[in-house]
Structure formats: C-alpha cells, structure tokens
Amino acid sequence: MIEHPTRDAGFGVYVHWPFCASKCPYCDFNSHVRHQPVDQERFLAAFRQEIAHNAARIPGRTVTSIFFGGGTPSLMKPETVGAILDAIGGAWAIDPGAEVTLEANPTSVEADRFRGYRAAGINRVSLGVQALNDPDLRRLGRMHSVEEALAAVKIAASIFERYSFDLIYARPNQTPEEWRAELKQAIGHAVEHLSLYQLTIEPGTWFQRLYDAGKITIPDEETGRALYDVTQEVCEAHGLPAYEISNHARPGAESRHNLVYWRYGEYAGIGPGAHGRLVTGNARLATSTEKHPETWLAQVEREGHGIVEEEVLTSEAEGDEFLLMGLRLKEGIDPRRYTAFTGRELNARKVRHLVEDGLIRTEGNRLAVTREGFPVLNAVIAELAA
After folding, report:
1. In the beta sheet, which residues pair with residue 127?
2. 14, exposed or middle or buried, with CB in 10 Å at 0-12, 13-18, 19+?
3. 320-351 in b/e burial notation, b at 16+ Cβ within 10 A?
4. Residues of the chain where predicted confidence (pLDDT) is lower than 70
5. What CATH code is assigned to 7-261?
6. Distance in angstroms (rounded) separating the CA atoms of residues 180 and 93
7. In this predicted structure, what is the pLDDT of residue 26?
8. DSSP secondary structure letter of residue 60
9. Where are the alpha helices (H) located in 160-288, listed in sequence order?
10. Measured distance CA(358)–CA(291) in Å, rounded
11. CA distance 130 to 165
12. Beta pairing partners, 242
C-alpha cells in the first residue's frame, strides 16, 4: 500500500446507480427518472470498464467496503449487483470482513428483491424510510407508506446481517415533541444504526421553489436546535449515540464505508456522478465522473471511463479535506496527521480559544468537536483551517 497519512483508513468502492422511480422534491442528488426500462446489461458493461480503469491506476488494494448508492440501487436486478461485485472482486482483493451495503427504498416490490441481493453478496442494507407518518411521507414525495416501510425493515432484519434506515427531521411544522415520539418509534425498529438528517432547502430542488414562493416553511433556527438536541438526547438514552454529526449507532455498528470517507481513506467512485479519492505515487487525486447517465455511458464505451474532472490535491487542500471530514466524527482527528499532510501544525492559539469556548476538546493525541460545537461545525472548521 502506498504510504500516506491515512493509509490505515481503508479502501472503499462507491457504485452510483443514478435512476429513481420518481424524483423527491427535497433531493439534490444525481438521480434521474426514466420512463422506459434501463438497459442494465449495457450499464453493467460500462461499470465493468470503469472498475477496470480504476484498478489499472491503483492496483494491489484490498477493498474494505463497497457501497451501492443512488438514485435507487434497489431498482437494479440482483444479477446486475452480483456481476458488479464479481468485477470488483476481479479487480482488487476483497477483505474477508468487507462491508457491502446497498441503499434501498422500502416499497413492497423492492423488498421482495432482498433475498436476491443477499445471495449476490450484499451484507448490509440502508433503507430510505425518511418519516414514520403517512402525511409527511406524501409531502416528501415518497412512494411508500409507513406500513410498507416497517414491513421492509422487518424483512431486512430477517435476511441481512446488518441494516440501517434514514429519517429526515425538521420537516415543515414538525415540533420537538412530535419528533421525540417518532424517533422513539424508529429506535424500536432500528436495532443498531440510524441516519438522521436535518431537512435543508437545497438549490434547484422543487422544495426550493415552494419555499421561495412561501408555500412551505421549515422550523426556524431555535426550533431546529431544539430538534437536534432531542435527537442527541433520545438516541443516547437508547444506546445509539452519535458517532458522526448525522449518524447514530450502537458501539461497533458504525457504517464502515462512511468511516472510510470521514477518516479520509482512499476510495474509487464508479458510475455517473461518482466522486473518488485515489492515491497514486505521492499525490492524492480528486476524481469525478460525468453526471448525466447516458452521456456517462457513451463516454465509458468510447474512452473506458467516465471521468470528466481530475485534480491533484495540494498539501493544503488535503489538510482542509482531512479537517472537513474528520471533525464530523465524534472521535475527531489526530492533529499529527494534519501536520503530515500540510507540513504545519494547527494554530495553537485558535485551538486554545475553541477549547475555552467549549466547541472542541483535546484528549491525548486527539482533537474533537464537542456536542455544543457540532451545530456550528462549519465555523469551527473554518477557524481551524484559516
């Protein structure tokens, strides 16, 4: 393995399936609706080509995690998933304990495919539940009901070794007490891991149009903070403390793939709109692929890959990304790794002031953001990186 300051953080492969049955009004991800069946065989051939292209650039890696994201990967045939996993296994060694996750929407049709995904090699699913009341599910543009969602969770629990699901909070008109009750209900089904995201109005989404027109509102800053505090309180009380700003797990059940990102490991991005961080020689490359699915497909068929942007990161940029990712984690960072990237230490005066303000803490060789600091995380990182 090439030497770099986060060489022990693992090597992940992210596979992006860009298609959805419908576009959710809050979503700004690279997802696309197609009214004709997608040619999965043709896309599979392109995935294989892009995997081979990446493996030729960074041979000899051992894959510690694989993540199928989207879009809606549970619209893929299990055979397609299995063939992509075979291609990854042919390109690199796979750690025997590798985590292999697939994002799924909890509709009854997709839940029926779970056994096929397990046979294909998936050992963890992440379900996009998003809410546990039907009116809010409709407002969020979700195609499932609460009943279908909980049925899918039950099926996932019976088939997969590990599973998680997502919820969105700070929804229009949501109160802290309503969220407290919903979160307790969710924890009753979650077992080991929950991803809990505060709703934000993203540029270019349908929600932004409605928000700008005054047709929807989201909780104000004070209520948003109260909802965040309820999240921390309830999850901690039920044994799922936050290990990252939006992710909660029982100890040992953290998402290993996402830890590769947050610990600033190396990962290959495969598929339309996927991002990667590849370490070659003494450089870390930031890569991104063509977002439009059919344009990506044509480029891969023509050139063997869909990469449209590639940047050699400077040591300063690496240090900034290391802070941006690592300080999202409750465990924080080892500042010596920041020094290894940048050649300089963090500003001791700024660190001292942030500690005095109760926004960060230092323990031994680690520096971490406090619970009070997480709501202003971006400001903390900006201060440290300046």
Report:
1. 104, 165
2. buried
3. bbbbbbbbbbbbbbbbebbebbbeeebeeeeb
4. 1-3
5. 3.80.30.20
6. 44
7. 87
8. T
9. 176-190, 206-212, 221-237, 256-262
10. 41
11. 8
12. 248
CA-based max dimension of the chain: 59
Q: What is the DSSP string of 47-59?
A: HHHHHHHHHHHST
Global model pTM greater than 0.85: yes
237 Cβ neighbours under 8 A, 6+ residues apart = none
User: Can you state the percent helix, strand and coil of the chain, rounding each to 5?
Assistant: 45, 25, 35
Q: Which pairing describes strands 62-70 and 93-104: parallel, antiparallel, or unpaired?
A: parallel
| Axis crossing angle, helix 146-159 with helix 176-190, rounded to the nearest 10 | 30
**Is the CB of residue 64 less than 8 Å from the CB of residue 9?**
no
> Which tokens go with 145?
């009901």
Nearest-angstrom CA–CA distance, 173 and 192: 29
Task: Please state the domain extents for the chain.
Answer: 7-261, 330-386
pLDDT one-digit tens code per residue, 192-221: 999 999 999 999 999 999 989 999 989 999
- Give the H/E segment covering residue 120: helix 114-120
Rg (C-alpha) for the chain, rounded Å, is: 21
Contacts of 323 (CB under 8 A, 6+ apart): 333, 338, 381, 384, 385
Q: How far is CA 79 from CA 40, 67, 86, 114, 142, in A?
A: 10, 16, 10, 12, 26
Cis, bond preceding 373 (omega within 30 deg of 0): no
Per the CB < 8 A criterion, the answer to whether 333 and 323 are in contact is: yes
Residue pair 123/160 in contact (Cβ under 8 Å)? The answer is yes
Cα separation values, 362 from 2, 332, 335, Å? 30, 9, 10
Q: Is the separation of the CB atoms in 333 and 368 below 8 Å? A: yes
Which pLDDT value is given to residue 190?
A: 80
C-alpha span between 257 and 238 (Å, rounded): 24
- The beta strand positions in the chain, using DSSP E, are 11-17, 19-20, 32-33, 62-70, 93-104, 124-130, 162-169, 193-198, 242-244, 247-249, 266-270, 275-280, 283-289, 307-312, 360-363, 366-369
CA 231: distance to chain centroid?
19
